[in-house]
Amino acid sequence: MESVLKKYFGYSTFRPYQKEIVEQILDGRDCLVVMATGSGKSLCYQVPPLVAKKTAIVISPLISLMQDQVMALKQRGIRVDYLSSAQTDSSVSQKAERGEYDILYMTPEKACVLPPSFWSRLLIAGICLLAVDEAHCISEWGHDFRVEYKRLDKLRNILSNVPFVGLTATATEKVRNDIINSLKLKDTYVAVGSFDRQNLFYGVKSFNRGSSFFDKLIQEISKYVENSCSTIIYCTTINDVEQISKSLHQAGIRAGMYHGQMANKAREESHRSFIRDEFLVMVATVAFGMGIDKPNIRYVIHYGCPKSLESYYQESGRCGRDGIASVCWLYYSRSDFAKADYYCGEAHSADQRRAIMESFICAQHYCMLTSCRRSYLLNYFGENNADRCGNCDNCTSERKENDMSRESFLLMGCIQACGGHYGLNLPIDTLRGSRSKKILDAMLDKLPFHGLGKNLSANWWKALAHQLISRDYLVETVRDMYKTVSVSSKGQNFLSSCTPDHQPPLYLVVTSEMTGDENKEAGEQDEELSASAGSHIFSQAEEELYKMLLGERTKLARARGTAPYAICGDQTLQKIALTRPSTKARLANIDGVNQHLMKMYGDQFLRCIQLLSQQLNLPMDGESCTQSPLVKKAAPRLEKLTPAKLEAWKMWQEGGFTIQRIANYPGRAAPIKEQTVIEYLLEAARDGHPFDWPRFCVEIGLSKEVFSNIQEAIAKVGKEKLKPIKTELPEDVTYPQIKASLLMQELGAGVLSSSHPLSYEKHRGSNVNIDKQERSDCLFQTEEKHHTTESLTSTGIIVSSGDKNGRTVPEINGGSKSTKESAPCNDDLLIANKRRKSNAPEAEKVEFREATESSILSWLENFENGVALADILMHFSGSTKESIIELLTDMEAEFLIFRKNSMYKVM
Ligand SMILES: Nc1ncnc2c1ncn2[C@@H]1O[C@H](COP(=O)(O)OP(=O)(O)OP(=O)(O)O)[C@@H](O)[C@H]1O
Question: Which residues span the membrane (predicted)?
């Protein structure tokens, strides 16, 4: 599976859940996959056909979406096509029947009208799965119901033994059950991932439509365009789409339009040009939503409050799908909130109308929120999250708070006095002393609150009301088409502790609506983020190189008639700009570089990298930054390490040596302490050098349990001093373990994300010499457990020592001796032995083996999880180090092997 992943997609690791899902599908099990937008659901159905060498059928709701996917997959060397009314090539169907495709996309309409003979022939040729993408369309409870989806159950009878897979990014419990029932899924493996899109910044602003707002918006968008970043502006009306497009054109920004009243051809053309980066801004209605799969959209603007949080999540989910930090701003004005009637017009029943109203109210609350936006969004989808995400406007900006106890008392008191029968307008008008007919008829002018709030604007009071709603002092209830506002029990408690002269303090945020600064801050906050998607990880020259590479990729794509992102992703180009590989092997090892890319454009890329790097005076094969460039928070310091530290780090990270081996390395004048080696390594990690945390945790015995104990101790006594932390912990917890935990905490997202419970479950086994029990609960575990220590004792041992040049020289040790007794410096061999599959040859015979392409390949095949360079050198001791490395390099460039975490594996 991993070989397929690297070979076709260029990635060396699966994202959370992907591997499990692929395994289940390959086992023939039905699956329901509910994972965030952009989380990589497609890969779950794209990998199995390449592993099983049978066709995958994918049902997809939109022709344009299928065409995009087909275009991108073809660039990966995958045999793929689609069937729909738009398909002009009549041979596709026959080729499909002969099993000539890895993946065949089709619309639900097409799937339902294909004759039984098509399916029986395909069954004979071999089908490995039927995937239903955007599966929420099957449910009337979903926000995008499509009646044709309901008829897909017919296929279940025809393809009774083929695993069915439903995939969606938005599905409530009700919708999930609907999908399972409608598709007749059996014994379903349900994978529900987090909805959190960590790389997205969420922000909201209220605004006044007008030229000053437009000017600011255009300035903002220009910055993205200058940095070759794509933007989508979602509007709620066609009128807005046209007006904004016009303003952009007048400002000299090329932008496309997409809405329901455009002719099909014009819409397709617009979509096509955007996907191909022919223009970088798309102004659209929600018609341009589901399935838009351009990975490098950096900015999504909502111009007006969306109709529901579901659609907001879907549309903002088009942003940053490649995982690079991206920005979503929502601009709303109060007039948007009056659109409830308009949206309710779509309803077919009273229930549906209520559901639409409720969704719309939640979207309004999202707009007015003063607390963490991500937390609110995730809660809405039933997921708990920390109170503050640190990556939304409410978490990042310093908000001024004032004591608004008197105003809250007046507003809640007035709402209460009005009997809780009205929406917000009437109580607020009463407070502001209105003498309108409605107020006089209801005798609200007789209330003691009448006129007490006339010094503040109606919008000010509404902004206060929304804060009180979001803090549960007030509740909104939908009755038929109307909503009413009343005081909650929390609000009652507050009121009962108030007198007209005294109210307990109630600090609330002073929002821009309260200060009347609506347009002042439009888009200002993300200025830093918008400057350039990758600028924080680049030097100036590297940034220049990155932009040049983007340009070269565009040229290449135009020449091939495809989209630039289909050649390779922005993230891959970022890594190329950072590392500037000089050889095919180094280029091939970059995440996102697949075999097809190497074959088609490898030489061209290498020439271009070399030329541009020379122009910019950048050395080739620069230091790579493995801290994810996606999350802005953890930018590496990359300070210079002393030679001793750098050497230790290189031996460990690149050479695959253990800490013990480095401490006792024979080439050293005198051994150093293992603890010193650990310090060196931690320093390298802190300085942003690539670092294999899972292996490190295994080596220092930092289990999940120890890690959480240390976290608890830190929470209790702080992190300033080590001693108090140590005192809090059981005696066997070591200082290195504490230091490593502190550093992991400090480095944050990039490191700790891998401690997700699932990745912990996934990473079993170990490649170092610690006992079985210890290994079983390590925090980060990287390898499968194939061998126990016991099985090693029967193995013949080669003890390695090194000559002055660091070359390994084999020595013979008795075949029956225990590993532990036999050698202080045989860790590398232990690594290899432990990784060997149970059917691997029993004993190492001491021979001076020669390395050839085939001898290396056939030996590596015995090691499912790969072999470190040191092991390979030791095993093929009949060849020189240089010749072995040259061979490995060639094989890597040819995609015969691949290197992951310093281990070489057969592809
Ligand atoms: N294991 C991986 N490593 C790196 N990138 C990946 C991996 N899996 C998927 N991706 C990339 O993530 C991006 C989003 O993936 P994909 O289109 O499958 O998302 P999705 O979950 O189907 O989203 P949506 O529901 O919004 O359509 C793609 O550019 C894809 O190539």
Answer: none
Q: How far is CA 511 from CA 394, 462, 634, in A?
A: 10, 11, 30
> What's the rounded Cα separation, in Å, for the pair 389 and 394?
9
123 in Cβ contact with 157 (< 8 Å): no
Q: What does the pLDDT average to over 240-250?
A: 93
- Cβ–Cβ < 8 Å for 72, 566: yes
**Cβ–Cβ under 8 Å, residues 374 and 246:** no
For residue range 12-69, list pLDDT tens digits in order: 889 989 999 999 999 999 999 999 888 899 999 999 999 999 999 999 988 888 888 9
Per the DSSP assignment, residues forming a β-bridge with 202 are 328, 392
Q: What is the ipTM of this complex?
A: 0.98
Query: Does residue 674 surpass a pLDDT of 60?
Result: yes
Distances (CA, A) of 201 to 37, 193, 749, 827: 15, 20, 15, 45
Q: Which residues line ligand 1 (CB under 6 A)?
A: 11, 14-15, 18, 35, 37-43, 169, 291, 293, 295, 317, 321-322
Tokens of 517: 């600064």
Is residue 323 very low, low, confident or very high in pLDDT (cuts 50, 70, 90)?
Answer: confident
Q: Closest by alpha carbon to 286, among 312, 264, 263, 266?
A: 312
Residue type at position 534:
G
**Contact predicate 871/656, CB 8 Å:** yes
User: Are the C-beta atoms of residues 300 and 319 closer than 8 Å to each other?
Assistant: yes
pLDDT for position 98: 94
Nearest CA-CA partner of 23 in 189, 194, 162, 160: 189
**C-alpha 8 to ligand 1 mean position (Å):** 14
Ligand 1 atom, smallest distance to 5 CA? 1
What six digits make up the tokens of 400?
């001024």
Q: Of residues 519 and 542, which shows the higher confidence score?
A: 542
Residue 463 is encoded by which pair of tokens? Answer: 């902004």
Torsion angle of C-alpha atoms 635, 641, 644, 649, degrees rounded to 10: 10
Closest Cα to atom 15 of ligand 1: 40
Residue 640 contacts residue 622 (beta carbons within 8 Å)? no
Q: How far is the CA of 356 from the centre of ligand 1 (A)?
A: 30
In Å, how far are 500, 504, 509 from 403, measured between CA atoms?
A: 16, 9, 9
Residue of the nearest CA to atom 9 in ligand 1?
40
DSSP string, 324-384: S-EEEEEEE-GGGGGGHHHHHTT-SSHHHHHHHHHHHHHHHHHHH--S-HHHHHHHHTT--
- Report d(CA 826, CA 793) in Å as an integer: 13
Q: What per-residue confidence (pLDDT) applies to 151?
A: 84
Token output for 640: 């210079």
The answer to whether residue 366 scores a pLDDT higher than 80 is yes
Q: Where are the alpha helices (DSSP H) in 582-623?
A: 584-588, 595-615
Q: What is the pLDDT of residue 829?
A: 36
Q: Is the dihedral of CA 305, 271, 577, 581 positive or negative?
A: positive
**CA-CA distance, 256 to 253, in Å (whole number)?**
10
430 pLDDT above the threshold of 70 = yes
Q: How far, rounded to the nearest angstrom, does the alpha carbon of residue 123 sit from its chain's CA centroid? A: 35
The whole-angstrom separation of Cα 167 and Cα 189 is 12
Give residue 275 CA to ligand 1 midpoint distance, Å. Answer: 16
Give CA–CA dist 22/11, Å, rounded. Answer: 15
pLDDT band at 468 (very low <50, low <70, confident <90, very high): very high
Distance 15 CA to ligand 1 centre (A): 9
Listed in sequence order, the residues at least 6 apart from 732 whose beta carbon sits closer than 8 Å to its beta carbon are none
Per the listing, tokens 């509404």 go with: 462
Q: What digits encode the pLDDT tens for the residues 829-878? A: 334 444 443 333 444 445 678 899 999 999 998 888 788 888 898 888 88
